[in-house]
Design a protein that fits this description.
The chain has 784 residues and is mainly α. The protein is built from 36 helices and no strands. The longest helix is centred in the N-terminal third of the chain and has 26 residues.
């Protein structure tokens, strides 16, 4: 330990910084164990040195890195006095005239902010921290300015409630920085306002959902008249060929992004502030002006009322279609993106005025299909526009204006996916297939013959991937990506044709070939391919029903492999979903394969290596299997119920102390999984003799679980309530002759009354049924 502390005296900056990082790594291990108690004191003392500036800088580095490490691992080991000492040292560093020390102090403050909750609650300390941070944001050293604005960004997210006293000053220094400072500083200043916008968007949504105690200062509304012109000016600061770089980030892109967030935050208020800029620049000879005007229009399409925007979009559409012939590729790229935004936010049922109609759809599609042949980055944006164009007609699929052009759309998208440039612009191929999927999904019944004709074509493309050269890791990645996309297309086609009886039978004739291809895909090691192939197989199983039984011997090993895939837990999640699909498709024909499936599911639940997000779905899967195999589920009942009882107890305990939003959300998923499992088992074993007596031993646990949900209704969502009231009804239906048990739980009636007055009609109807079942059980008590 002592040797590490000596290294931070090194004269070479990189060595000092590396030593500070190592000290932080070791400290993050030792501090929770109280094994290096003098560490913080030593670093704070070193930061106070007046004769060794290099030591001060290194000590501040180390303090900042320690805070970063502890925050990253969510370790709450710093006591209030520790945080106070760190912040005092950091503040002294920020006030120092030595710019290297000032930078180290500002960066350390950024990492320490997460632990400064109590300090920000005290006005005097808060004022001082905000003062030195704002002073640093106006420092002559660009590095310090960037670090200081990063601190303000973090404060905007973590301590939004305390900002009213400081927002005017922050507005002044941030807008000055956007207009006058170097790009790196200006980008962070814009990021501050983007963060404020995001914070206020979330708070506005919470208020609309009925969370009345949420603080919403409406900073963006107040700043909007002054901030909007400054953001619009940044749109004219594009970089040449920025459209070719997917990772490009500059003033123009940051300003447009912030403008978009502001539009969502304030809605209609932003439109009159932006339209003059658009009108002034849209016809300028300089491409920068035309691109900036188009970018501005596209940026404000989400947020304002679509009915108010639709007439403007209608007028703009013809101009945008002409702009797709602009000599500047950047203008065409932004124009394609803006058309996509119109399709996403102002098309279909979203606006009272129909922007895309039968009388203009042909001209729009002609431009879009031509755009698919243009520059790859423009073609990718066109794919997005087609995706949202099709989605906007979903609710009127049977009279969709796209139907006459369905064949042309499919052909254009398939050709775009096969372009030679996809080797360099891989996102074009995925965008083309995603758009194709949406076009198929939202198509009318008249197109079913064309959709059916796609099956052999897509299967042929999938078969061809098996002969692609796959020597290098890059080759295998590209092969796997294409296989995944093609499996996704087949999945959508299966689901589409399965919707109607007259097309469902067509799938059976292709099922053997499809399964052969899907099983071949599993030879690939790519997790994405496994996931997409699994989803396609789940759709096929649902479509062919118990006819899928003949594929189980060949498929079961891959199913079990997917359930064992802990490292790529998304694959495991999808595989659990496929088990549910198989349960619904095969019903009691699943029984011969249940031993190995149930054993693996139980092992998954017991594993600490499997991501927790998979486990609620596994519990729900127990209910699916029980519904499928009925009485034969009694072979697994003790093991399944033991897991469910443990999960119920965990949920009850978590509800009593969970405040973190992520943990509350997870507990809701757990509740739903538990409810669906219990309900499935109760209903699945309905015809088993002695069912009521067999379930009596589990009744208290189940009712305590339901009680916990009722007692924490403020935490739960409608889906949880829906599953809970259904479970109560299923339990009451199962426990014949046990009315006394329900009478001893008056809170159950409280839950039923609550559900009877719910806005959700399904919950109301279920509650009415539960009332009848409970009444029957209580009458049994009276009869005795």
């Amino acid at each position: 330990m002592a040797n590490l502390m000596h290294v931070i005296f090194a004269k070479i900056s990189e060595v000092r910084q590396t030593a500070a990082m190592v000290i932080a790594k070791v400290g993050a291990i030792e501090l929770p164990l109280k094994a290096w108690p003098q560490l913080l004191e030593s670093l704070v003392r070193a930061s106070e040195s007046t004769s060794h500036p290099l030591l001060v800088q290194a000590a501040l580095f180390a303090l900042g890195f320690i805070c970063e490490e502890l925050a990253e691992h969510e370790m709450e080991v710093l006591q209030k006095e520790d945080v106070d000492r760190i912040l005092t040292a950091v503040a002294q560093g920020i006030k120092c005239e030595n710019m290297d020390i000032k930078l180290a102090g500002t960066e350390a403050l950024y990492n320490a902010l997460e632990f400064a909750q109590s300090n920000f609650e005290r006005e005097g300390e808060r004022d001082y921290l905000m003062q030195i941070t704002c002073e640093a944001a106006e420092c002559s050293d660009e590095r310090v300015q960037v670090a200081a604005f990063s601190c303000l960004v973090s404060i905007a997210g973590a301590y939004y409630e305390i900002l009213p006293a400081y927002i005017s000053h922050i507005f002044e220094i941030s807008t000055r920085a956007i207009k006058n400072c170097d790009e790196n500083v200006a980008l962070q200043a814009i990021e501050f306002w983007s963060t404020i916008c995001e914070e206020e968007i979330e708070r506005k949504e919470m208020i609309e959902e009925g969370h009345g105690s949420v603080v919403h200062h409406r900073f963006v509304n107040q700043a909007l008249p002054h901030l909007t012109p400054i953001l619009l000016a940044t749109l004219l600061k594009q970089e040449e060929d920025q459209d070719l770089d997917e990772c490009a980030w500059n003033l123009s892109m940051a300003g447009g992004t912030c403008l978009g967030y502001a539009a969502v935050a304030v809605g209609d208020e932003i439109v009159p502030l932006v339209m003059p800029f658009i009108q002034e620049n849209i016809n300028q000879t300089n491409w920068r002006n035309r691109e900036a005007a188009t970018f501005a229009f596209g940026s404000i399409l989400e947020g304002p009322n679509p009915q108010n925007l639709a007439p403007m979009c209608d007028q703009a559409m013809q101009f945008l279609l002409q702009a797709m012939k602009d000599p500047s590729n950047q203008v065409k790229d932004t124009t394609a993106w803006t058309i996509g935004r119109i399709c996403e936010f102002c098309h279909g049922e979203k606006g009272g005025h129909q922007v895309i109609r039968a009388d203009n759809v042909q001209s729009i599609l002609a431009v879009l299909l031509e755009g698919l042949k243009g520059e790859p980055h423009v073609a990718e944006k066109i794919c997005g526009a087609i995706h949202y164009l099709a989605a906007g007609f979903e609710d009127m699929a049977e009279q969709s204006p796209l139907t006459p052009y369905f064949q042309s759309l499919l052909q254009g998208l398939l050709e775009a996916a096969d372009r030679a440039e996809v080797a360099q612009y891989t996102s074009l191929r995925s965008s083309a297939y995603e758009a194709l999927n949406e076009v198929v999904r939202c198509s009318s019944a008249e197109t079913s013959e064309t959709v059916t004709q796609m099956i052999p074509l897509v299967m042929q493309k999938l078969a061809e991937t098996f002969t692609m050269p796959a020597v290098t890791a890059f080759d295998r990645e590209k092969q796997g990506e294409l296989q995944g996309l093609l499996c996704g297309v087949l999945q959508v086609i299966i689901q589409k044709l399965n919707l109607k009886e007259d097309t469902k039978h067509t799938l059976h004739s292709f099922a053997d070939q499809m399964m052969e291809l899907f099983l071949h895909v599993f030879a690939c090691r790519s997790a994405t391919v496994h996931e997409e192939a699994m989803l396609a197989i789940g759709a096929l199983a649902y479509a062919v029903g118990d006819g899928f039984e003949k594929y189980m011997p060949g498929f079961l090993p891959y199913l079990l492999t997917g359930l064992k895939n802990f490292s790529e837990y998304q694959v495991c999640t999808v595989t659990v979903g496929v088990v549910g699909d198989l349960s619904r498709a095969l019903e009691n024909k699943l029984s011969p394969h249940c031993d190995s499936i149930m054993v693996q599911l139980l092992q998954d639940l017991q594993s600490d290596d499997l991501h927790r997000s998979v486990k609620p779905a596994i519990l729900s899967c127990f209910g699916d299997i029980a519904l499928a195999i009925g009485a034969e589920f009694t072979n697994y009942l003790p093991y399944a119920m033991q897991m469910l009882q443990s999960a119920s107890q965990l949920s009850i305990e978590t509800a009593s102390w969970a405040e973190d939003e992520g943990l509350v959300d997870y507990n809701n998923l757990l509740r739903i999984g538990i409810c669906e499992a219990y309900s499935g088992i109760l209903v699945g074993l309905r015809d088993v003799p002695g069912r009521s007596e067999g379930f009596r031993q589990y009744a208290d646990t189940i009712l305590s679980f339901i009680d916990s949900i009722n007692n924490h209704r403020g935490q739960v969502n409608q889906e949880v309530i829906r599953a809970t009231i259904a479970l109560l009804g299923d339990l009451a239906d199962a426990l014949e002759g046990m009315g006394a048990l329900f009478r001893s739980k008056p809170s159950l009636q409280e839950l039923v009354v609550y559900c009877m007055s719910a806005e959700d009609t399904q919950i109301q109807q279920t509650a009415a049924w539960v009332t009848e079942v409970l009444q029957k059980r209580l009458q049994e008590v009276g009869a005795t």
